[in-house]
Amino acid sequence: MMSSSRTSARSLLLLFASARAPLGGRGHLAAAALLAPLLLASCNRHRFPSYGANQREFAYVSGGASDTVAVLDLISLREDRSIPVGRNPTGLALNPINDEVYAVNTDSESVSVIDAAKGEVIATIGVHSKPHFIGVAPNGKRAYVANAGANTVSVLDLGHHRELATAGTGESPLMARVAPDGRSLVVSNTGSGSVSVYSLSASDKQPIAFRDAFSGCAGASNVVILPDSTKAFIACTGAKKIMAIGLGAAADSWRGKQDASLQQDHLLALLDVGSTPTDLALKRDGGEVFSTNFDSDTVSEMSTWTNEVGGTYTIGSKPSHAVISHDDSTVWITNFGADSVSLYSIDDGKLEGEVRAGSGPQALAFSADEHLLLVANTRSGDVAAIRTQSKNGPELVTMLPGGGHPNDIVVKAFSVK
Question: Is the pTM of this model over 0.85?
Fold first, then answer.
């Protein structure tokens, strides 16, 4: 696939099992059919939304080959600015409490802190060798970065923009995901094919403590955790498997009091899916999780209640990333090998169609009210803005610059004074 030595963290996920291409993590036009109504009441179904004078909405795109984060104005649909960051920015994340955006700089071993209102880098936090992704705690106070080259995870104090502590992991940790309740951290260790689980604390003296580890997940990569923090699902990219782990309950929680055995982390299942599962997409209600199976051109649908695979369906060439609509009715899937996006109807259980996109689509994200789907194209270096609702179905609105080799994309809406 990509010959560049500056592979994205997302592109790496595609390589673990096949050992022949760069890795992946999460673009472009989608297909026809009926979609859910837009979330904002002010939005007409077939029209663009209206915005107040103090409203802002931007997409942030990490350009791995340009050492920048492109800022795209989603109200006027134009490039707002290009922000210089560290070398080879890969994963991005938003702070849920304030207006900060975080970019992980893989080749300069740092995290750039971007003030969304100012549109500039306000701090740089040093971490360790080969970081790729960053997970932010629900309260916005801490973040966690897996350092693939150092076999550690960094704990970041976001209030003071500093590294607070580190903890050892398995080999080549890729992703660190915080549970919604803020109690647990799940780290996928790609090199050792394992998963590490940690307890988290608000204490500065001991903010993280190792809790358990699970082997048998070759090429462990993407991680999702249920909204109630009871289970984690991990893509075993090198084994055609998805690992399901039960996360230990707090002793004083209703689950912990009900059954002492639930206080311990435990392996629930290893689910059989298609070849090279790269991305995981979780429904907002937590009832189902979908995996994109890159080398079998399929997507698998799994029940999080029974820990079983409900079905595996043909989608398109080299599906790499997926995102689920806010109403849990549809999955948008990028076909890296076909330069397109497919739309799978969860409610109807079938593929609704496919729309052409840019070259090498991977990461994708919705606008705040879901009237746009933004797709980062790694080979063509641009972002497709796709209108999800129109009289004729989804349609491409425009192509926006994404910097050199866009790796990730996130969207933030906020108000200015």
Answer: yes
